[in-house]
Amino acid sequence: MKTVHINNVELPAVGIGTWNLGDDPNCHDDEVAAIRAGLNRGARVVDTAEMYGEGRSERIVRDAIKGYRRDQLFIIDKVLPTNAGHQRLSTSLEQSLHNVGTDYFDLYLLHWRGTIPLAETVDELEKMVTHGKIRAWGVSNFDVSDLKELWSLPKGHHCVANQDLYNLEERGIEYDLLPLMKKHHLPLIAYSPLAQGDQLSGKLTSDRLLQEIAANHQASVYQVMLAWTIKDSGILTIPKSSSVAHAIANWQAGELNFTPDERAALARRFPRPQKKQLLATI
């Protein structure tokens, strides 16, 4: 299994995403079982956010991690931009901690940029580190200009990760954002690594090259897509798992290694962007 370092912690490069988990009460037990299946296989990262189902995903995480050693988990949560200032960040954080049932988060992200100045948000995040409520902080949906503005702040370089959309069909960050992050040793957390929407995922699952590579490794196309997101170092991928079978398949994808010929074929079939693109988000 590939690994990635975030805040000096070595982590398996395949984590567990929870977007949309908790939305259907009838799926509660299956979703809890899926998260536990990933953890039982060796996953350590569980990613959630106060926005996901207005706390419902956080509470699914709470139910799933009961009985696990907290120091073996790496829990990521996110604050909404409207709550990321002096007046609300502390309260939002406390509510999220309560929802997840933990005393601290290993990583707390600004979910995306809003109208609150970055300096104010960074100030509050630094306070939460001092108070022991979070071990580290980062950002999400930040592009090159956002990171440069962040790094211009006195404590902006305390940011330990940036979470962005990244998959075979959304490679815009490879043009300038990923190279900049690698230069500054800032890890990427890749969200929606298996793409979103039936039309897009259907297009990819029917791709002949992906099918051929999947057959070479006795894997599924989805596993190939997931393995592609972590083919390079410094990347953590966080696919959602709503069933035990998917959770196990996601974990196994982290053990898939492409041959040089396969990497070259993928690069030809899905070429890098040749110009700056608007940051893709969902």
Termini Cα gap: 28 Å
Radius of gyration over alpha carbons?
18 Å
CATH evolutionary superfamily: NADP-dependent oxidoreductase domain
What's the β-strand tally?
10
Low-confidence stretches: none
Put simply, the count of helices is: 11
The succession of helices and strands, N to C, reads EEEHEHEHEHEHEHEHHHEHH
Description:
There is one protein chain. The chain is globular, with a radius of gyration of 18 Å. A hairpin with a 2-residue loop joins strand 1 (about 5) and strand 2 (about 10). The two termini are about 30 Å apart. Helix content is about 40%, strand content about 15%. By secondary structure, it is α/β, with parallel strands linked by helices. An 8-stranded parallel β-sheet has the order 3-4-5-6-7-8-9-10. Helix 1 runs parallel beside helix 10 (about 245-255). The longest helix is centred in the first third of the chain and has 14 residues, at about 30-40. The mean pLDDT is about 95. It has one domain: TIM Barrel, CATH 3.20.20.100.
